[in-house]
Amino acid sequence: MSTGPWSANLSSFGQGDSLHQQVLATFPLCDVTEDDLTQNPHFCKLLATLAQHVDQTGLTVPLKTELEKAEQKLQSQRRHWLRSECVHKGLQEMIQEHTIRKQHATVPPDQHMFYETMEKCLLVSQCVRQLDLSSTTSQDQPSVLGLNSQHLMELMPLEKNVQRMKQGLPKELDKHLKKKCFGLLSYYQPDWEHESEGLKNIKLSHLSAQLDNEKKRAESLKETCRESTVLLQRQTQLYLSEMIKCIQLLQSLILDHRLRIQTELDGKKLNYFEGKCDLVLQKIKTEMAEIQVDTYTVDSISAHRKIREKLDSELKGRQVEKQSLESKLSSFEILGKEFEALAEEYCRLRQEIEMKKWALKEFTHYNDK
How far apart are the first and last CA of the chain? Predict the structure, then answer.
């Protein structure tokens, strides 16, 4: 492969280790180490060439320009939406505060009329907006409950009340927003809460710039933290690779040393276990002898002999009796099934006789009482 095109594109990059460091700095999000670049020089040149056309996030210059324009347009639309949303939320908060204030104190009639008119106007406008289906559905879509915007506009307050409300609304809204801004200022710097209104207005005018500076500072710290994280990951990988090498070297040394002394160690262990086994066997024999000496005295041995002689004589007698019973049983079996029926009838009669003897005995015992 020819190196001419590569060298033309790499004119602004260094060579060797300098090139590797620049490539790693250009692509901080790429999980590549300096060893990977050293082992794959063509891949390193490819990354260096790509660095001429993309930024650190991997976007090309035209795409990044279009993205910035789209973000600016989005920010503009977002600011427009937030402006209207803040005004709407502010009006709702003013109505809520008036409702709470009305529960705890007496409100002047004109002020009550002002907030009541504003609440009705907001409610009607919200219903009209939700009833308008033209932006999402076709024009011939049936309306909700047969209503249209004209029906809802009939619920608007009187025109004179609406005009009076519109005249006083900017002042009241400005007062409410200023109160919220002062609350935000006190939250941002609690020490400024007891200062004068003029000083608060001055500091409030600089609050946006201060918050913007702090946001940029936080983003800068976040970027620094991200770069530090990437650097820490690379150092961790390098540290782990070195640790693995050290562990492998240590394992090889341990294995070599163990192989040299393993035979001698196994022989010593074998001798040790043999001696320990002999000692345990001798101890077991000694314990068994002590148990026999303690258990079988001269008197107990003579008594055991007498018991054994008696048991032997009884065993012989039972064996003789067993043989006689077996001979009788075999003679009975020769007689066949008729004798078996007679034997069962005999057993039944014996049981009835025993039961009648027991009943007679119980009856006699009861009569004696």
Answer: 132
The model's pLDDT over 203-236, given as tens digits with 9 standing for 90+, comes to 777 777 888 888 889 999 998 898 888 888 888 8
Torsions phi, psi for 60 (to 5 deg) = -75, 165
The answer to whether residue 198 is domain-embedded is yes
Q: Count of domains in the chain?
A: 2
Task: Give the domain range for residue 150.
Answer: 62-133+144-205
Domain final position from 181, 205, 229 = 205
CA distance 97 to 111: 12
> In sequence order, which ranges of 296-336 are alpha helices (DSSP H)?
298-334
Summarised one tens digit per residue, pLDDT across range 78-111 is 988 888 888 888 888 888 888 888 888 877 888 8
Measured CA distances, 175 to 40, 114, 179, 182, 246 (Å): 68, 15, 6, 11, 72
Specify the DSSP element, H or E, that contains 92.
helix 61-104
Q: Is residue 88 part of a domain?
A: yes
